[in-house]
Amino acid sequence: MIYGLYLSATGILANSYNIDTLSNNLANSESVGFKRDLTLFRERLTQQQESNHAQDWSDPVLEKIGGGLTVNPTVIDSQQGEMEETGNPLDVAIDGNGYIATSDDGGTHLTRDGRLMVNQNGQLVSANSHGSRILDDKQKPIVLSPGAATIIGLDGTVTQNGQKVAQIGLFDVPDKTLLTKKGAGMLDYPDMGQLTTGTGQFRSQTIEHSNVDPTTELAQLMQAQRQLEANANMIHYQDETLQQLVQSVGKIS
Q: Which portions of the chain are predicted below pLDDT 50?
């Protein structure tokens, strides 16, 4: 194996993955409730270190160089995004920790997208394309009277015509690193039975924007592209060196 080519190849793969992640963040910079993804890098172990076969032959000099660059599983940045008042009584944002629980044919999911509406069956649902049912503090679907004046309180209490009719559940998870994205602003957690009560508050007639800063993401994207190009150039230079080695040094006169 040509070790230099291998190290440059790992750099290309890692930075290509980072570019995809940053591009997805930029594409969702205007998505309500979206949380940016973070790419974490680490040094890859050499083959001998990964297999833990100390008896296998290996060059002690090359072993000290390491196995190149690789990535850890992507982490979701849970930092809160900016708030915007909309004037819509069914819009809510979560100020602090917590998630709204939704339900559809695929099971129970979590979201920070608080754009809500009442469907034709009187169910309170997410206003996104999936129309997932919003769950109360007992994880049951919420049913409202269509057309009635609705007020949502800080604790999620839903009042219609002066009467409490439901309470939107505010939930949290024990370990945010286990959250995975489902799409359309929805998140999955491995065990929904472990949900706890969120510590945040609801802000009525408000939505939470994405926590993506386009300027920061664009700067990081340009840096990742330069790093990818640098690794690609190194492969090109090493290929030219090998070509000279074969054509000149190894030539029999």
A: none
